[in-house]
Amino acid sequence: MRQDARTSSGLMAMALAAVVVGSATMPAEAATYTIRLSNLYPENHPMCVQTHNFASYVEEGTNGDIDVQVFCNNQLGNEREASEGVRRGTLEMVMSGGGGLGRFIQEFYMLEVPFLYPKMEDINVVTWELIDDINALANDKGYEILGFGYEGPRNINSVESFNTLEEMKDYKLRIPEAPMYVGMARALGAVPTPTAFTEAYTSLQTGVADGMESGPSTTYNNKFFEVAPYYVQTQHIVNPCYLAINLDYFQALPEEYQQVLRDAGKRSTDIMLGDVLASNDEVLATMKEEGLTVVELAPGEAEKFRAVLEPFADEYAESIGPGAVDLLAKARAVLATQ
Question: For residue 304, what pLDDT band results from cuts at 50, 70 and 90?
Fold first, then answer.
């Protein structure tokens, strides 16, 4: 990590290093580290289940010397606040996507541009194939990425039914507070309506937004179908979230513990992929029973969505810079081998 990229977490790392050094002459059971892990998703969401799995694997791999305390449902602040806390060193870990880490590492948006992945499973191949590139970007901002969580395919939860691109004109689309999603909404002809995730339900309920986009598990676990009973099958995005730890904190841990965290991140990510695929099918069936109407796009309309959103991906990459263009090209190269 370059010196000019260090964050104010250096003091915390020095303090942790002193604990590590001091513990070297003490019995192993006396060396205890507490890691707080923030997650915006509710307890029953696959993303929250994953972070609990990660915590269990770390405890197992360190014989209890590392205690990972998981806080789901925005208990430690919203996604942006928690991501900032990890960057600054006031919080140890976060599970975050474009609404948090993406604010500090805009290149990450390239791994969730519309219509990038032919199928859900492909994202797990791309992220791990590019983990070194991802961490090169993350390290410059004070993070180490240990694993991933996946959301999607994202569709549109709508207050009223529609099935054509033309009907997106002037449609108030609630989106994450992230620049890429603002650009995407505009490319669709919609009115970008950025709100915090915790305000999404209310924005649909009160008419601030006509609809929002999210994956099946998120739609179900947050009951968005109660206020937006139509689920329009655009299937436009599969996106990663990042299991991120403060870099200085991570590097001050004993090397064997660093490896335990990496292994736990990989193991919990692979399990999460299977969990979210199974959850998507289960919750979609449940929501239908509870009144959700699944709306298929009219013939030829899926191609129209692709026609406006695929060029947007390249334009957005160029607007960020060479690093984003490079990461998108590498992701496409990996996908070309699948």
Answer: very high
Estimate the share of the chain in helix, then strand, then coil, as percent rounded to the nearest 5.
Answer: 55, 20, 30
Range scoring the smallest mean pLDDT among 40-49, 118-127, 205-214, 237-246: 40-49
Amino acid at 41: Y
Count: domains in the chain: 1
Determine contact, residues 46/101, Cβ cutoff 8 Å.
Answer: no
How many residues in total does the chain contain? 338
Start-end of H helices in the chain: 10-23, 46-61, 79-88, 122-129, 131-139, 179-187, 200-206, 216-221, 247-252, 255-289, 301-320, 322-336
Closest CA to 100 of 148, 44, 40, 150: 40
Tokens representing 20? 């590590």
Residues 6+ apart with CB under 8 A from 160: 210, 230
111 confidence band (pLDDT: 50, 70, 90): very high
What 312-316 contacts at long range (C-beta under 8 Å, 24+ apart), as own/partner pairs, is 312/113, 312/114, 312/183, 312/184, 312/187, 313/110, 313/113, 313/114, 313/115, 313/116, 315/183, 316/109, 316/113, 316/180, 316/183
How close are the terminal C-alpha atoms of the chain, in Å? 32
Q: How far, rounded to the nearest angstrom, does the alpha carbon of residue 2 sit from its chain's CA centroid?
A: 26
Q: 129, exposed or middle or buried, with CB in 10 Å at 0-12, 13-18, 19+?
A: middle
169 contacts: CB under 8 Å, gap ≥ 6: 189, 190
Alpha-carbon distances, residue 4 vs 52, 103, 256 (angstroms):
34, 19, 28
Q: At 40, is the secondary structure helix, strand, or coil?
A: coil
Give the model's pLDDT for residue 29. Answer: 55
**SS3 call for 145:** strand
pLDDT in tens, 119-159: 999 999 999 999 999 999 999 999 999 999 999 999 999 99
Residue 120 lies in domain: 3-336
Are 238 and 112 in contact by the 8 Å Cβ rule? The answer is yes
At 251, the amino acid letter reads Q
Question: What is the CATH number for 181?
Answer: 3.40.190.170
